[in-house]
Amino acid sequence: MTTQPHPSRGTSAAAPAARPGSDSRTFVHDSSDVPDHLQITGVHKSFGGTEVLKGVDLDVAQGRTTAIVGPSGSGKTTLLRLIAGFSAPDSGRIALGGAEVAGPEKWLPAHKRSVGYVAQDGALFPHLSVGANIAFGLPLRGKAASLRVGELLEMVSMDRAYAKRRPHQLSGGQQQRVALARALARQPELMLLDEPFSALDAGLRVATRKAVSDTLDQAGVTTILVTHDQAEALSFADQVAVMRDGKLAQTGSPFVVYTRPADRATAEFLGDAVILEAWMEGSLALCSLGGIPVRRPPVQGKVHIMLRPEQIRISSGGPIRGTVVDTDYFGPETTVRIKLEPILVDAEHPRDPHQPVGGETINIRHWNAMLARPGTQLSLKVVGEGVIFPWDE
Ligand SMILES: Nc1ncnc2c1ncn2[C@@H]1O[C@H](COP(=O)(O)OP(=O)(O)OP(=O)(O)O)[C@@H](O)[C@H]1O
After folding, report:
1. Is the ipTM of this structure higher than 0.90?
2. Which GO MF terms does the UniProt record name (predicted)?
3. Considering the entire predicted model, what is its pTM?
4. Architecture (CATH level 2) of domain 22-259
């Protein structure tokens, strides 16, 4: 069994059709018309009696990008290594392009799968030039190899002249791009990226991510990115799979997992969330922010409602009142902490004793720090729908 991660030596494969326009990454995306490239069914994996993967199911469509995101230790890298073929699942199945590569009676090691792997640190060979790193494992030699190396460098937005340098003469972002070029050299059908941007500083990280994303887009390679950075997952992928405690808590488009998280932990992991006590009646949730519409509420009565901070706007004449407690200034935006007024009691309709009283303090964001000095009375309005979670979740 292969134990060290290294790029696949799989045979060349015809590049799949280019993926649709990049706006598909931002908005709700329907992959039902695209065949699955990777299918993972009921995968379990334990180390020394500790179950790390507890039954993972995941389908990845041909030519699309999936981000597996989750807290440290949730099992993301373990899953990626099973897909790569660096280790075998205890049970369950993994199929690539419809052919089983891991199952009860079958297991193909990494070098027999058409899979590229880019590790966190790029893992370039330090004693080889950039060109030799990229050409490593290429079936080409001499001029043909250097031409191909040049093409691959250009593919990752680097000048051909970099081929002569050693890895230590490159920036972290350039090293990651070379690692990607090396992985792309074998024309893998599936590219696995294990936190490849995490060692880069903020500016370089965004630029490198964009370059890598564009390169993979153009090559039409099915891609899986492992990250613990939820913003990276939401911006990079067509599909986000949220891993928690060895299971996928939710899988969907970035828009769906962010705006309609399946549970409270997923909501809080994927971004800032305003979570309030609420009383669900029909399709309206009554809370300190008024009556918030909820689509297809699964329960009635006492619940928690979740809104994203950007859904709550400061608006003169808005129906909700609150008082600024304090603020945190971040430059382009300010976090404003606001104490809401308690829920108004309708004198004619006595309230249910379980109904919440409201009056919580929430955090919202605003661009104008001057507007929100402590003690200022504000009017607020809510846009869009809320998501509810059972009271005891
Ligand atoms: N080879 C191994 N032997 C024993 N335990 C392991 C092995 N590989 C992973 N684990 C354990 O499995 C759990 C999940 O690890 P994994 O690296 O998959 O998590 P992760 O979600 O990728 O975390 P991180 O974001 O910190 O990289 C951890 O508790 C880890 O210690």
Report:
1. yes
2. ATP binding
3. 0.83
4. 3-Layer(aba) Sandwich (3.40)
